[in-house]
Specification:
277 residues, alpha/beta, 2-enoyl-CoA Hydratase, Chain A, domain 1, seven-stranded mixed beta sheet, two-stranded antiparallel ribbon, 10 helices, 9 strands, globular
Length: 277
């Protein structure tokens, strides 16, 4: 597959979406909903996550489906998205399952996670939950020819998302493309009205885990700083190495009880603010 400019392109979620997920939806955990061994929880970013060691991947989902076997499956989603290409792969893995798929949007299904949600034969969403759709978003560098090549490269991926949304929702493709251009957040009732969901979840279906919410916010700060450094011209590997050096805990999770780890978060946020100025 041809790639523009550096030939190293990843479709990502914008930092602002991570911030909204952290503020409004992170830390959501199932409460009243019945659990079982046929439930797949997707409460993470889409794709392997360097900073937490987690992430929702097609490989993991395929493994869970094999363990569930030839039975109906419920997928519970609270995700800001991440790698669009991985999201498409997960969507296809779920669509290949021989039994019905029920998707429950517990907090947010944004960006790549909204693609995954469309795999549901039945899609349920909380009244205060959101489905967000937007165009494929990347970090790219180069001259005007490189930028034009990047734009042309991304067009078929945006069209692929339009096709997925239109097929599942029944909404007009041109309207969907406009919603993607506008980066649209759909509440539960709006998602149902536009065909992106079928019914509301029970009001007591979820609760907020404050500890998990705080941890998610800290990891989101690191993700945002990584993107700022990459935007400033650093490679992803170099950006992660620099952040780990400042953090003082190379390769460790954010909440590790390592002396000095928490003290450096303020330094990291200050650096992010400096890069934005």
């Amino acid at each position: 597959m041809p790639m523009p400019a550096s030939r190293d392109v990843s479709a990502l979620t914008k930092p602002q979406v991570f911030e909204k997920w952290s503020a409004d939806a992170a830390g959501l955990r199932p409460n009243a909903l019945e659990q079982g061994d046929n439930v797949i929880t997707m409460f993470d970013v889409v794709g392997e996550d360097f900073w937490s060691g987690g992430g929702i991947t097609a490989k993991k989902v395929a493994s869970q489906l094999r363990a569930i076997g030839d039975r109906p499956v419920t997928c519970q989603i609270n995700s800001p998205g991440g790698d669009m290409f991985e999201g498409i792969a997960i969507y296809n893995v779920l669509r290949e399952h021989p039994q019905p798929i029920t998707v429950q949007v517990m907090g947010m299904a944004a960006s790549a996670a909204s693609i995954i949600a469309m795999a549901g034969d039945n899609i349920e969403i909380g009244a205060a939950s959101f489905i967000m759709i937007h165009n494929c978003w990347v970090l790219a560098m180069g001259n005007r020819h490189d930028m034009r090549e990047t734009a042309e490269f991304l067009e078929p991926f945006d069209q692929a998302m339009v096709d997925v949304y239109a097929q599942r929702s029944g909404s007009d493709a041109k309207k969907i493309a406009k919603w993607m251009d506008d980066e649209t957040f759909m509440s539960g009732s709006m998602a149902i009205e536009r065909g992106f969901a079928d019914a509301l979840l029970d009001a007591d279906a979820v609760k907020v885990d404050e500890k998990a919410k705080a941890q998610d916010r800290e990891v989101n700060d690191l993700r945002a700083l990584e993107l700022e450094l990459v935007s400033a011209g650093h490679t992803r590997t170099d950006a992660r190495a620099r952040i780990n050096k400042i953090k003082g805990t190379p390769g460790a999770a954010v909440d590790d009880a390592t002396p000095g780890a928490g003290e450096h978060l303020t330094d990291l946020l200050g650096l992010a603010a400096f890069l934005k100025s």
